[in-house]
Amino acid sequence: MRDYEPILLRNVGVPEARTLKGYEARGGYRGIRKALGSSPEQIVEEVKKANLRGRGGAGFPAGLKWSFLPKDRTITYLCVNADESEPPTFSNRLLMENDPHQVLEGAMIAAYATRAQVAYIYMRVEFHEQFHVLQRAVDEAYAAGYLGRRLFGHDFDLQVYIHRGAGAYVCGEETGLIESIEGKRGWPRIKPPFPALEGLFRRPTVVNNVETLANLPHLIERGAAWFTSIGPPHSTGPKLFCISGPVRRPGCYEGPMTITVRDLIERPEFGGGMLPGKRVKMVLPGGVSVGVLTANELDMKMDFADPAKYGLLGLGTAAAVVVDTDTDIRLVLRNLARFYALESCGQCTQCREGTSWMYKIAARIAAGAGRRADLDILEQTARNMGMMPGLSICGLPDGATYPIETLVRKFRSELEELIGQQEPARRDAVLQTVN
Amino acid sequence: MLHTEPERLTQEIRSLGERFGKDRAALIPTLQEIQRRYRGISPLAMQIVADMLDIHPVEVDSVVSFYSFLDAKPKGRYVIRLCRTISCDMQGKERVARQLENDLGITFGQTTADGNFTLEWANCLGMCDQGPALLINEKVYTRVTPEAVHGILEECRQAFGLHALQAEQEHAA
Fold this sequence. Notes:
Chain A is of the alpha/beta class. Chain A is built from 17 helices and 9 strands. The termini of chain A are far apart. Chain B folds into 2 domains: 5-66, Arc Repressor Mutant, subunit A (Orthogonal Bundle); 78-172, Glutaredoxin (3-Layer(aba) Sandwich). Chains A and B meet through strand 5, strand 9 and helix 12 of A and helix 2, helix 4 and helix 5 of B.
């Protein structure tokens, strides 16, 4: 992998690439120019052929998503999902703060392919610096005539607006995001109708993740055959991987989807190995929502197919966090459960109640007042509220249950041991305070 | 002309309407601007916004109560949000939290009596490779240690209160 030439991150560490001129000098805005020479349908076909799968978490093929748009539509919206809120993911942040024009060019290509005339970039409010960088890029693009009317002399108009979120994890769900742009609570909508038919302002809408869009300029410029030459057939193209936790080089790195979790941790070009004296206990390889791996499961490939073999929800955001052997897994359990209890939007009963009960139980275990039955209750709750797609309005409860269920199942004996070591007197005291 | 407080607020919000538009999609940008200026969105402000956008005030309240960066109750001048998600947690956010509480004399969720600082938790700021991270208004601080907390708070204090006043007076003189 040492000979892997970064594609998406090629402009990281090159400050002048943040300007339109610098970006163009480094080969930018060639993809959109080439795209405009073909018909939108041809672009959709090319992206389908390349099998570009969405990088936001679900891995849905981007070209297929676009092809769901009704043929007779008059207005189409493009929403760029820059609400990156999945812990511990920061690849979109890196793209937006280092290479804003790459994101814009990707948005232009997606807009052209879907015949969208307005694009909203929905950016989480926590990103301040990134907002200013991207806004500058948008202003520059307008000033250069790269946005607005008749882009590059073609019959193609595009307006781009950056819409800032107001702090809600669930707004990363595409219909939650749409509701939020419309000025409402970020409550995901019941599907169908899917956004392709009835999305933003009840018009056909496509929602694509920042990283997905960042792939487009390269895909179009170099072609689908080049794109599919990277990675296995079901997981084509370059991919960003984040790694955090007690490793030597926490950060965001790029590679093909042939690497394993172990590569991500150990290889010098990625995580660079564990910090001195630290050993891997557990890894959450794809953002916290996909579930956990034990130290014996590090050969899992970071692609769209392999995670399911390890009982995980999927590749997710491909952002791994390593938990070391010095960390009390009860605290990890509590931390994970708390996140979802706070971020559940509250619409579906099983998610609203389930996440908060799982948190209460996890907090009790962490406080030293766990009961053996608690582990069963956690597993049951997890199975009842998620892991059966289609029972809830959005995927949040699935994402909430995978980490809890996999952690309890894969680390059950250790949790039982910890619960067994509790002092009864202390347990009773804690129970009185937490219940 | 002498304005009462409600009149002034109405005028100000109406001018936001000129800027962001008066349809429903303008609601969140409008509320964000009110939050920035007033550090909170009062019931009166909600009523004025509702009138302007021709929606029921409860719709405005439902949005304010949903998002964690919009608040009905006014916040301090500096809102400190410490990330408590998994990576920052393992990198020692707890010690930073204790230091912040000690230095400010408040616990999480509270605002100092002088209205200068509010202490809150954040759910993943996306700085997981550089934790523990915290956000103060619009500025991100990374790899925060308990030892760094004093300096960070002092940096905030420099921007207002006695320090700022002295600087202003020196400037005027």
